[in-house]
């Protein structure tokens, strides 16, 4: 369930043309670490 939520949220960010995500949640940060194609969305 968490993976589906993470993927959907990040796809929404990507579709909106946004490029800055702050991964404040440890689950999301860990999920992005495991899915490097989403790392360009991270701030800094």
From TrEMBL:
One Pfam family from the record: Acetyltransf_CG
Gene3D superfamilies referenced in this protein's UniProt entry, alphabetically: 3.40.630.30
Highest taxon listed in the record's lineage: Bacteria
Listed InterPro entries: Acyl_CoA_acyltransferase, GNAT_YJDJ
N-acetyltransferase domain location: 1-43
Protein's UniProt name: N-acetyltransferase domain-containing protein
């Amino acid at each position: 369930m968490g993976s589906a939520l993470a993927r959907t949220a990040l796809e929404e960010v990507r579709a909106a043309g946004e490029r800055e995500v702050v991964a404040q949640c440890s689950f999301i940060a860990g999920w992005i670490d495991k899915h490097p194609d989403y790392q360009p969305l991270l701030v800094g």
